[in-house]
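Reviewers asked in the last cycle whether our approach scales beyond single polypeptides. To address this, we selected a multi-component target totalling 575 residues and predicted its structure end to end. The input consisted of the following lines:
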Amino acid sequence: MANVLAVCEQRGGTLRKVSREAVAAARLLADSLGGSVDAIVVGASGADVAGAKLGEAGADRVLVAAHESFGAYAPDGYAATIATAAKAGGYAAVVVAASATGKDLAPRLAARLDAPLAMDVTALAVEGGKVVATRPVYAGKAIQHVVLEAAMGVVAIRPNTFTPAAGAPARADTVANVEAVTGTARVVVREVKASEKGALDVAEAPVVVSGGRGMKAPEHFALIEGLAQAFGNAAVGASRAVVDAGWRPHAEQVGQTGKTVSPQLYVAVGISGAIQHLAGMRTAKVIVAINKDKDAPIFKVADYGIVGDAFEIVPKLTEEIRKVRAG
Amino acid sequence: MKIAVCIKRVPDTETRIRIAGTGIEEAGVKFILNPYDEFAVEEALQRREKAGVGEVAVICLGGEAAQETMRTALAMGVDRGVLLKADAIPPDGLAVAKALAAELKDGGWDLVLFGKMAVDDYNHQVGVMVAELLGLPVISSISKLEIDGTKVVAEREIEGGVEVVECALPAVLTCEKGLNSPRYPALKGIMAAKKKPIEIKPAQLGAAALSVKALTSPPERKEGRIVGEGASAVPELVRLLQQEAKVL
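The resulting structure, written as structure tokens, was:
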């Protein structure tokens, strides 16, 4: 059998965007393998499965495993439930998003399924009936192409890289209930503390506005935040220098010891472009750099650059973006 | 408290990568202790110092040269090392996890620490797999840790927030930046490290079910352009983003 299982991710009963991306990646594999796609949703009962339009994203069937203890991420229960469903379905591949949760869940699944795991995958293909995954290594300084040489493989896809085909015909996406396996919860998520900045994470946002040492002081990041706000769908990022200086939290760091991002648009403000930073954002679709040093390495990877004072350019850009968005 | 820290020797993050076959050209490359493993080593040392008693060992899977990396950890204050010798580290994280699990299995460890990932292969999986193979609880990518008796409370960053996660010892934890500030080895530590024992044994690797077909250079970004200087260039930039790049 050459069917593929896509693992969906929900928070508070709402399916996250990466769920549709996992389904889209699974669809791509299933089409090459000549199989179908099952999407599995693990959560408390009443999750808004219909709202995620998984059929449109490419799912043939939706499996729901509901349990009262599955509202928040329950590592042992989620892994046991999905591994049980994966074994029962005999899938060729299990696709998970390489989100914060997925990076914890995918290795648990791989160990329980005795299956190889390709982490942080940016492209997928099938060659000779085997899944071939493309993944950046050495922080994007090289690209590794790996073959999953087992009857079942686990693939964790990088957020923002697989998009459901627009206008694809909606599939049947029948919903079936599957067993929720709770087992022993050795690890318990006691609490989820939301950060004050809202839910948009730098690793998943369609637009990222990052600031570096060129911002000169932590309070000047208000300009970066203002620009991000103007975009409406942007997260704030930061260079290692400003994170190490304590100006910004590590959660915002982009680069080799921070997050690797692939947004539609990356705006680097006052960031010179150290090799380890470039490694974290070079897969962005469009890069804009604003820097007063015209020889800064960031301009080598930027599609569009403006040389000059960020303190003059950013407020003007914020104003212009607001105008565009106001239509 | 008896603590094992699993570490890896990796190319320096500032190093330039030259591709050779399906791997990299190692000649001329500076190798370091994986940066995330430094947080794990530091955490182990702090826990032992707090407890006043206990042992910290590093376990490393790699070739002969990995001993140099292990000495760095010993110089930081780790008591001893175990080198699981392998000619090559398989690209399959599960095969590596099986070798580490086999070594850790009957060690009586209270705590097993890992870096959240290695900065060379970006596999981001071995620590969690080891815990699963050993049947131990694991909290991954922790940025804050409290241990009270056998109760572990850790925090891990998720998109737009932080999860507060609990488990009991013995446990496996994988460490994220922000957990602590790793110490630099002092001269005294470096001297002492030379006399600390490193036991060498063959790695019992699992069968690899993942192979590397090719390693390629990342696609070059096409040459960009300077739109202009100063705030007066902004309207043109916005026009390009709208009409040419179509991202607005």
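Chain A touches chain B through 97 residues (CB under 8 Å). We regard this as preliminary and will revisit it once experimental data from Aim 1 are available.
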